[in-house]
Amino acid sequence: MSFGGLFDVRKQLTFYGAYHSNSTNIAIHVVCVPLLIWTFQVLACDIPVPSSFPNIHYTFNDYLAFDFNFTFIQAALYLAYYYALEPTAAFLYTPQMILSVLTAQSFAHKADHVTIAAVVHGVCWIAQFIGHGVAEKRAPALVDNLLGAVVLAPFFVHLEVLFALGYRPEMHKQLKNDVGVEIARIKKIEGDKKRAAEKKEL
């Protein structure tokens, strides 16, 4: 994906959607992606922060806490990008991201947080690869664009839920059409490569 289309929500979601058109695979991602983000945030709390960072910590209760660390920075950068892509959807996603950060930062203070987060994280990745291999029958988006896939995934599944609830039907219809065209283009390229390889073998 070129830099010129980095803030074009239609191009970005078409790219990601072309790898996630199967309903079973999408359902797996709707469940697993938020867990992947949350467990990553738990683990990121253990990354040492520079001494120049503000030393801010506040515990709301046994389940919610806030620390100025890399988990907070990751969430802030993701949200900033989502607001640039689609402000209304990003606004609706903000409470979910805030809750994810606060619960992750609280959970990170538990003694066994690394083991639990790592196991859940690994299981979710395995489930998603199964979704791609068995249901989608196509490699995940991260094979072609690691950064774009990892950053877009939470917003994509959030929008899938919003679309299912009736959010911006015209945008949804347009994206489905764009994804269909992109999938057809990719299949043509893959078919051409396969035929070229077969000719070389003859």
Key terms:
about 200 residues, two-stranded antiparallel ribbon, about 5% strand
What does this structure look like?
With 202 residues, the protein is mainly alpha-helical. The mean pLDDT is 90. It has 7 helices and 2 strands, in the order ααββααααα. A two-stranded antiparallel sheet has the order 1-2. It has one domain (8-201). The longest helix has 33 residues, at 169-201. The two termini are 35 Å apart. Helix 1 (9-17) packs across helix 6 (146-164), helix 1 (9-17) packs across helix 7 and helix 3 packs antiparallel against helix 4.
What's a concise summary of this model?
It comes from Artomyces pyxidatus. This is DUF962-domain-containing protein. Helices cover 71% and strands 3% of the residues.
Which SSEs are present, and which pair or pack?
Layout: H1 9-17, H2 23-44, E1 57-59, E2 65-67, H3 70-85, H4 87-107, H5 113-136, H6 146-164, H7 169-201
Helix pairs in contact: 1-6, 1-7, 2-3, 2-4, 2-5, 2-6, 3-4
Protein name: DUF962-domain-containing protein
Organism: Artomyces pyxidatus
Class by SSE composition: mainly alpha
Number of helices: 7
Average pLDDT metric: 90
The helix/strand series, from N terminus to C terminus, equals HHEEHHHHH
Radius of gyration: 19 Å
The largest sheet, given as strand count, sense and whether it forms a barrel, is: 2 strands, antiparallel
Strand content: under 5%
How far apart the termini lie comes to 35 Å
Domain tally: 1
Q: Order of strands across the widest beta sheet?
A: 1-2
Low-confidence stretches: none
What is the β-strand count?
Answer: 2
Apparent shape: globular
Q: Helical proportion?
A: over 70%
Organism: Artomyces pyxidatus
Protein name: DUF962-domain-containing protein
